[in-house]
Amino acid sequence: MGANELSAQLWRERELLELLLFKLEEQELLLAAGRTRWMQFATREIEQVLDGLRTAGIARVVEAETVAAEWGAPEGASIRQLIDSAPEGAWRDVLTEHLNALTKLTDEIGRLRDANSEQLRAVMRATQETIAGLGDDTGEYTTHGERAREDSARIIDTEM
User: Fold this and answer.
1) Residue 39's closest CA among 24, 60, 49, 17?
2) What is the C-alpha separation between 133 and 114, in angstroms, rounded?
């Protein structure tokens, strides 16, 4: 019975990782669109999924301990060690499939998390620069209609 519960728990973790990937992509789209107003909600949803993953991880460890005892694997065995200790048959394939899917999802999540972090840092830098320049006179013309600056070169950063 333990292997069935472990497999069900691994499915639950896979679903949560897919939901996390979706939420990170949602965050990425908000950043790309400049819709930072909604960022707090996206961040909260990501945190909720992470809380669910922590809970699911604890449940997986409990189920893995049961399976490890049944299969003679060492205490605290990882999924890879359980695969090595699995009896001949379908359980090796099932656990290998779970492991491969979990690995792929965590790699995708890591890449997207890093990209989003970089975008967030760029937005923060731009915001700080904007705030720092609020006190400066940046107009092209004075209040009398005369040119405030004689130089004509301007550099505009269109990418974040």
Assistant:
1) 24
2) 29
In this structure, the number of other CB atoms found within 10 A of the CB of residue 150 comes to 5
40 exposure class (CB count in 10 Å sphere: 0-12, 13-18, 19+): exposed
Q: Which domains does the chain have, with CATH numbers?
A: 2-129 (1.20.58)
pTM given for the model: 0.77
What pLDDT sits at residue 111? 97
Position 131 scores a pLDDT of: 79
Helix, strand and coil content of the chain, in percent to the nearest 5, comes to: 75, 0, 25
Report which residue type is found at 94: V
How buried is 33 (Cβ within 10 angstroms: 0-12 exposed, 13-18 middle, 19+ buried)? exposed
Are the beta carbons of 127 and 119 closer than 8 angstroms?
A: no
Which pLDDT value is given to residue 53? 97
Question: In the predicted model, what is the mean pLDDT of the chain?
Answer: 88
Chain-centre distance of CA 132, in angstroms? 31
